[in-house]
UniProtKB/TrEMBL annotation:
Pfam families assigned to the protein according to its UniProt record, in alphabetical order: TerC
Entry's localization field: Membrane
Keyword match Translocase: no
Signal peptide, first to last residue: none
Family: Belongs to the TerC family.
Keywords for the protein's UniProt record, in alphabetical order: Membrane, Transmembrane, Transmembrane helix
Keyword Transcription: no
Protein name as it appears in the record: Tellurium resistance protein TerC
Location, primary (coarse class): membrane
Transmembrane segments: 6-27, 39-60, 72-91, 103-125, 131-148, 191-218, 224-245, 252-275, 295-317
A cellular-component GO term for this protein: membrane
Length: 332
């Protein structure tokens, strides 16, 4: 794709405007959105992403549109996995329900900033060193194996990282929340509220997930514009999706295994592409590996979509079966 500076600027302005509208809504009226409100917002953001893909198709062809849709679907599924950790953080720190929207929005903005930096760094590395694909591929395969072993995290397994523990010890933290404020006054002193610790937890979580998501998207497309927009559209609406899914998140018990398959598939794809473009002297004498197949984008889309669909259906079937068993045991 040949994306001009004007297109980049227009895209950034439009996406920033949408985020600002989101920010103004929360800042003016913090609340827990209804199912109807959340559904409308999620449908709006998904429709926006689909419409954007059509625009890419008309201006840059089916291949670029396919890369965008595949990247967006991958990043969206990884973003849903983020929600599991967000739920645990909210429960662990007892964040009042009406203020969780602000926490989620701040988390999304932080994720966008971090991913923007990683995208720029990744694009620069790939343009200079094709062997970076070996590292990205190996990292994704390693992440996939760990995800398959650990499954979805739960509150009992959540442990505060070093930055959170340091903040608790070094900063004056009040016992109670003061709305959604980060600071409060108590006995003539200015204290930080527990909301600051929550923001730190969300930010460090975003950093960890960005380390997974950026190599994954580069395994689908190396076009920085598509990488960036796929990530932005995947994160938009995540706040409303959190409230829409609600208890459904607990029922997606096989999602982590589906994501492990997706990340493993993309990791293998990256390694194969690295072999096909190999120039490392200690691998095949520095020559390209002719037998390494190229996985087309349509096949990647089918594999990713099929895997996530199977994982979701299997999760819902298993959850429904477990619920029926629990009801039967309760009855006697």
């Amino acid at each position: 794709m040949d994306v001009s500076g004007l297109v980049w600027a227009g895209t950034l302005v439009a996406l920033t405007a949408v985020l600002l509208v989101d920010l103004l809504i929360i800042g003016r009226r913090p609340h827990e959105p209804s199912v109807r409100e959340s559904s409308l917002w999620v449908a709006f953001y998904v429709g926006l992403a689909l419409l954007f893909g059509v625009g890419v198709w008309l201006t840059s062809g089916a291949s670029s549109a396919g890369q965008f849709y595949t990247g967006w679907l991958t990043e969206y599924s990884l973003s849903v996995d983020n929600l599991f950790v967000f739920v645990i953080i909210m429960a662990r720190f007892g964040v009042p329900r009406q203020y969780q929207q602000k926490v989620l929005l701040v988390g999304i903005v932080l994720a966008l900033v971090m991913r923007g930096g990683f995208i720029a760094a990744g694009a620069a590395l790939i343009s200079q060193f094709s062997w970076v694909f070996y590292i990205f591929g190996a990292f994704l395969i390693y992440t996939a194996v760990n995800l398959a072993r650990q499954g979805e995290p739960n509150e009992d397994e959540f442990s505060e990282n070093l930055l959170i523990r340091w903040s608790r010890k070094a900063l004056p933290i009040s016992k109670d929340y003061d709305g959604a404020k980060l600071t409060t006054h108590s006995a003539g002193r200015r204290l930080f509220t527990p909301m600051l610790i929550v923001m730190i937890a969300i930010g460090t979580t975003d950093l960890i997930f960005a380390l997974d998501s950026i190599p994954a998207i580069f395994g689908i497309t190396q076009e920085p514009y598509l990488v960036f927009t796929a990530n932005v559209f995947a994160l938009m609406g995540l706040r409303q999706l959190y409230f829409l899914l609600g208890g459904l998140l607990d029922r997606l018990i096989y999602l982590s295994y589906g994501l492990a398959v997706v990340l493993g598939f993309i990791g293998v794809k990256l390694v194969l592409e690295a072999l096909a473009d190999n120039n490392l002297p200690f691998i095949n004498g520095g020559e390209h590996v002719g037998w390494a197949p190229h996985i087309p984008i349509w096949l990647s889309l089918l594999v990713i979509l099929g895997t996530l669909l199977v994982a979701t259906i299997a999760s819902l079937v298993k959850s429904a079966r477990d619920r029926r068993r629990e009801l039967a045991e309760a009855r006697g």
